[in-house]
TrEMBL record:
SUPFAM superfamilies reported for this sequence: Protein kinase-like (PK-like) (SSF56112)
Species the sequence originates in: Suillus subaureus
Domain of life: Eukaryota
InterPro entries per record: Kinase-like_dom_sf (IPR011009), Ser-Thr/Tyr_kinase_cat_dom (IPR001245)
Region forming the signal peptide: none
GO MF term (any one): protein kinase activity
Domain named Serine-threonine/tyrosine-protein kinase catalytic: residues: 6-63
Record Pfam families: PK_Tyr_Ser-Thr
Protein's recorded name: Serine-threonine/tyrosine-protein kinase catalytic domain-containing protein
């Protein structure tokens, strides 16, 4: 969700995975990029909830993306961003 709406990966500024683990152990979430709308950010924060019961179901997220992001992102752009994200995760 973060990547799809912002085009950036979470923790972009942290190159060392250990630093990410430390931040997560302190319940820190990635910084909000300037290009994420309030309603998108609210959903992202729900997805990152420390209480699993407060996280949205996958169907809720997919429905939200289908309804809210289609005017913002063309389907091809979303697919392209996901492909780029997967490539960034590969060694």
């Amino acid at each position: 969700m973060f990547f799809i709406v912002s085009g950036d990966i979470p923790w972009k500024g942290k190159k060392n995975p250990t630093h990410i683990i430390i931040a997560l152990s302190n319940k820190v979430v990635p910084a909000r990029p300037n290009n994420i709308l309030n309603n998108h950010w609210n959903l992202i924060k729900k997805c990152w909830s420390w209480n699993p019961d407060n996280r949205p179901e996958a169907t809720e997220v997919v429905g939200y993306l289908a309804m809210k992001t289609s005017p913002i992102l063309e389907r091809a752009e979303v697919v392209e961003r996901c492909a780029v994200f997967r490539c960034r995760l590969c060694p």
